[in-house]
TrEMBL record:
Residues 24-282 form the EAL domain. The chain holds residues 305 to 599 of 599 of the full protein. It comes from the Bacteria. It comes from Kineococcus endophyticus. This is Bifunctional diguanylate cyclase/phosphodiesterase.
């Protein structure tokens, strides 16, 4: 996933950077510098109960997503800097910086809204096999005051597919201390379906491509209906990612999909902006139970 992925990301990603394909040593050095200075930002995107509306204040959790604004080039897409970090042994540092900021932000969000939320953080497969992963996470949670019971670690379906014993051990270890696990980008890989019954996981995040096809055909919807039933039987809570339209939302509600996430509800935002948006929406709704929590 290194060179080609990077090139494609540069060519097509949002916030693309104006560089030619191939190695970009300058960008790598700048990323290193930014990580050393903890100069990465975090935005939070709500996970909501579908069926409430585009302005949903019914959120149960937030996903933390890394943002990097290069001092000269401006915003760099995660589709560029995440693979760059993964290919150059910086992803552990990146995940640590992001997780620390995210936990601190989640504490603020909880205090401002009074909601009982979970926080999900993305973890690269490479970072999961690092023996320091779990101890670091526990230390971060303790130091920031974010409870382990409110923490969810997202690992991609492709990581799960190729999961070594070490990876599985890490996921088991997380769950043993009360941290939950989500399988991210589900539906983009090849074989994770056959491992779902033995995978140590709590949430299944349905990839945005899958969500986009929801309104395309009855056969697609039948597939999702089956997937939702099966997930429920296995004790996995499904989160549909990338919900962009009211039609997709309606389809999810009709199928009984428990949770959703996407631009239609809320864009990923810095914590202060998110607090303001949620409090404004709650005032408009004037419904005491508008901000939910507790999943
Ligand atoms: P992901 O974990 O699957 O995150 C969801 C992506 O979908 C995010 O892209 C989010 O901004 C975007 N998104 C949210 N709602 C919608 C929607 O309605 N439509 C569409 N088209 N997209 C939507 P983003 O922020 O660019 O991040 C891309 C990927 O980079 C993430 O995918 C994740 O795999 C990775 N990533 C981001 N932050 C971190 C991090 O701190 N650590 C690691 N290891 N990976 C990260
Ligand atoms: Mg994710
Ligand atoms: Mg995803
Ligand atoms: Mg992804």
């Amino acid at each position: 996933r290194t060179d080609t992925a990077l090139y494609e990301a540069k060519a097509g990603g949002r916030g693309r950077v104006a560089v030619a394909g191939g190695a970009d040593d300058d960008l790598l050095e700048d990323l290193r510098t930014a990580l050393d200075a903890h100069a990465l930002d975090v935005v939070l995107q709500p996970v909501v109960v579908p069926g409430v509306g585009p302005d949903a204040t019914r959120f149960v959790g937030v996903e933390a997503l890394a943002r990097w604004t290069h001092p000269v080039r401006g915003p760099v897409s995660p589709a560029v800097f995440i693979p760059l970090a993964e290919a150059n042994d910086l992803i552990g540092d990146l995940d640590r910086v992001v997780t620390r900021r995210a936990c601190a932000d989640a504490v603020l969000l909880r205090e401002a809204t009074g909601a009982d939320l979970f926080l999900t953080v993305n973890a690269s497969g490479r970072h999961l096999v690092d023996p320091g992963f779990v101890p670091d996470l526990l230390a971060t949670a303790a130091e920031t005051g974010w409870p382990l019971s409110g923490l969810v670690v997202e690992v991609t379906e492709s990581t799960v597919e190729s999961a070594s014993d070490a990876t599985r051990d890490t996921l088991e270890e997380l769950r043993a201390v009360g941290v939950r696990v989500a399988i991210d980008d589900f539906g983009t890989g090849y074989s994770a379906l056959s491992q779902l019954d033995t995978m140590p996981a709590d949430f299944l995040k349905l990839d945005a491509h899958f969500t986009a096809q929801l309104t395309v055909s009855d056969r697609r919807r039948a597939l999702l209906a089956g997937l939702l039933r099966m997930s429920g039987d296995l004790g996995l809570v499904v989160i549909a990612e990338g919900v962009e339209t009211g039609e997709q939302e309606d389809a999810l509600v009709a199928l009984g999909c428990p949770l959703a996430q996407g631009y239609w509800h809320q864009r990923p935002q810095p914590v202060a902006a998110l607090v303001a948006a949620l409090l404004a929406a709650r005032d408009r709704d004037d419904s005491p139970g508008a901000v939910l929590g507790g999943v």
